[in-house]
C-alpha cells in the first residue's frame, strides 16, 4: 500500500457537544494512520492538493469517521425484525437459542455472515463488536469474514453453561468445556492467516449472568486477565434479567461482574438501562463501557437508558444495533432512535398525566451527541484508535453522499447542521466509499469491493 491523500470536507467530533467541519487534505500513511490533517488555505494544503495521486471528494459529499456497532449478534441476522412482540426470556428460549443452535453447521454460518458483514459495510460500520455462537468453527467463519472484507471485527465465542436457562442442545456441557473452548478460540483468532496486524480480535463473551454458572464466570475472569482479552456481556437489560441477577447473587450485574473479574479495561456491557449511579461509577472506574441499544431497549428493556446521565458522568458509551433484539443493521438509525428515546424519556409519554409529572427532566441528548456516540464514543469504548479523523488515528472513514433528497448538504451548512442532517437521513443509500485502516474496502456502488 502507498500513502494516500484525501481532500474534501470532513466532519468529526471533538467532544460530544462539539463537532468540527473543515475542508482539509488528509495524508494517510502506508500503515493506515492519519499523518497530517492540513486545512484549506495553507501552503501545505496547496502542495498536497497539487499531487496527481490525490483523491478528491466530490462537492456535496462529506467524510465522517467510520461507525462502530458496539453490540451485535451476528447469528441472529436471519431473524432481524421477527418475534419482537415476545418478552426477552421467551424470545431467547423459543426463537433465539434454536436459531443459534443451527450454526453447528459452518456452511450456514458462511452464508449468513457473508451477507451480514457486507450489509454492515454498506451501512458504514467499520468496527463491530460481535457475539457469535457457542460453535468454534462457525465463530471462526465470522472472524475470517471480517478479515476477508477488511472490517475491524471483535468476535466473541459465546460462553453459556447454565442448565436452568440454556437448552441441552445449545450450551457448553460444563464450565470446563466452555473455558477450554474460549481459550482455543482466542488462540485461533490471533493466529488466523492475514490477521498479523490484529484487525480481528477475540473477545471473552459470557452471554449474561443468568446463562453462566459461577465457575464459568470466575474462570472467564481469570482467562481475561491471563490472556489480556476484552470482555463483552449483557447487563441489567430488563426487569426480569436485573431481578434474576439480584436474586441469585445479591448484587447488581455490574457488581457481580466485577466480583468475577469481568469488569475490566474496555469491557462492554450491553443495554445497562437499570444501572444506577453507583453501578455507572464502577463502570467508569474500571474503564469499561456501555453499549446503548435504543431500538432493542424499546422492545425488551421496559425502560430507556438514561444516556444523558451516562454522558454527563463521563462513562464510556457507544451505540449497538443488538441485531436481532433491534431490527436495523444501521448505526445511523440507532443514533436517531437514541435522540428520540431520550426526548420521550424527558417528556414522558402518558398524556393522562400533567406535563410536569410526565417525564424525567433533562434527559435529552442532541444530534451532535448522537453523532459522537456513533463514531468516537464507540471507538473509545473499545480503545480503538479511530472514530476521529485526526492525526495519529487510524483512517477509518465513511463517505456521505449529500447530493440529493433530504440529505442534500449545502456549502453553507455548519457542523451542527451537517451532524443533524446525517443522523436524521443517512442510510446505506447515502453511503459511498468506506475505508478501514487506510484501505478502501467499499466502492460507491452498493457492494463492498
Ligand atoms: N440476553 C442474553 N442473550 C441475549 C440476546 O441474544 N439478545 C438480547 N437482547 N439480550 C440477551
Ligand atoms: Fe444483545
TrEMBL record:
Instruction: Tell me which cofactor or cofactors this protein depends on.
Output: Zn(2+)
Pfam families (alphabetical): Amidohydro_1
The keyword Zinc is annotated on this UniProt entry:
yes
Identify the keywords attached in UniProt to this record, alphabetized.
Hydrolase, Metal-binding, Zinc
Annotated Amidohydrolase-related domain ranges read: 63-440
UniProt xrefs under InterPro entries: Amidohydro-rel, Metal-dep_hydrolase_composite, Metal_Hydrolase, Metallo-dep_hydrolases
Under what name is this protein listed? Guanine deaminase
* Organism whose genome encodes this protein: Gluconobacter frateurii NRIC 0228
